[in-house]
Write a structure and sequence with these properties.
By secondary structure, the protein is an alpha/beta fold. It has three domains: about 1-115, P-loop containing nucleotide triphosphate hydrolases (Rossmann fold, 3-Layer(aba) Sandwich), CATH 3.40.50.300; about 120-180, Orthogonal Bundle (Helicase, Ruva Protein, domain 3), CATH 1.10.8.60; about 185-300, Zinc Finger, Delta Prime, domain 3, CATH 1.20.272. The protein has 16 helices and seven strands. The longest helix has 20 residues, at about 220-240. The radius of gyration is 24 Å and the shape is globular.
Length: about 300
């Protein structure tokens, strides 16, 4: 059986592979026939060769094929893989960045073992945070779960690390422990910075920028995060559901940005984009040192 796990939620895919792997070993014991193959490194023929081998001491085998898409298989090779996978073999193929135009996606996503993993946000993500903390025999209030997401961001990898730390520290995760222990994500930091920009509070903007830099973020990353915030503001101002879907903007982000968008017009956002583009060009071309370009960016955005 081929298990095709795809979608933009790499955390969900990784967690599912771990569960399948553990379930297999629980049923076979340490003598289980399990193998990881990096197809991009070893080649598609190596995978086909392993698929042709029958399990010897157990009734089934598990093969985890990594980086199959990077190996750029032909349509014929995909058919070979499908036909070579016997009933006694479970083959896991993961693709966290599926290109739905490709043959590999079109063929594998139709299989019985295909499952899509999408990024989660909003109330669904809050419920996931609560459930993850409960797995550590700890508790968190729904409002505090939402606050943790606000501070850390929506990335489940980052949230999982922070949850491990917080639940190990206390059996009751609260806003106070989050403030004490959680490391604010770049998205949260730049959202707060963008709030200060919207209020034209330049001294606070410069102080926040300095703090973000001290956390080790490069100027180009900070600029990219600010661009993302203004894109969210633009989409909130336009309030067009089709555009939101096209940009794959999460409803959680848009809802969070709505209060900022209230202070901007379309012309304001256009001016902001020109200022951001100018700072980006100055940084990449070497026309200005990155620090000077960022200061110019902040002065410009505060003038809108």
């Amino acid at each position: 059986m081929i298990i095709y796990l795809y979608g933009d939620n790499s955390f969900g895919i990784s967690r599912q592979i771990k569960l399948i792997r553990q379930k297999y070993l629980d049923s076979t014991g340490p003598e289980g026939d399990l193998e990881n193959i990096d197809v991009a490194e070893r080649g598609i023929n190596a995978l086909l060769g392993r698929l042709s081998v029958m399990p010897m001491f157990v009734s089934s085998r598990l093969i985890i094929a990594g980086n199959l898409t990077k190996a750029k298989p032909t349509p014929e090779q995909i058919d070979e893989i499908i036909n070579a996978t016997s009933e006694s073999t479970n083959l896991i193929i993961a693709d966290s960045k599926p290109d739905k135009r490709t043959v590999i996606y079109k063929k594998l996503s139709k299989l019985k073992g295909a499952k899509e993993f999408r990024n989660i946000s909003g109330s669904e993500l809050s419920k996931w945070v609560i459930a993850e903390i409960q797995k550590h025999n700890a508790k968190i209030a729904p409002a505090d779960a939402k606050y943790l997401i606000d501070v850390v961001g929506e990335n489940q990898w980052t949230l999982s690390n922070e949850i491990d730390k917080l639940a190990s520290y206390s059996s009751q995760v609260t806003r106070a422990t989050i403030d004490e222990l959680a490391v604010p994500g770049l998205e949260n930091n730049t959202f707060i910075l963008t709030e200060a920009l919207a209020k034209k509070d330049l001294p606070r903007v410069l102080k926040l920028y300095k703090n973000i830099k001290l956390q080790g973020y490069a100027d180009q990353l900070i600029l990219g995060a600010i661009t993302f915030q203004y894109r969210a503001i633009l989409l909130s101002v336009l309030n067009n559901s089709e555009l939101n879907r096209a940009y794959k903007m999460s409803p959680y982000v848009l809802d969070k940005t709505r209060s900022l968008a209230a202070g901007y017009t379309i012309d304001d956002v256009k001016r902001a984009y020109k200022i951001i583009a100018s700072a980006d060009l100055a940084t990449k071309s070497g026309e200005l040192p990155a620090g000077e370009a960022m200061n110019g960016l902040f002065y410009g955005l505060c003038s809108i």
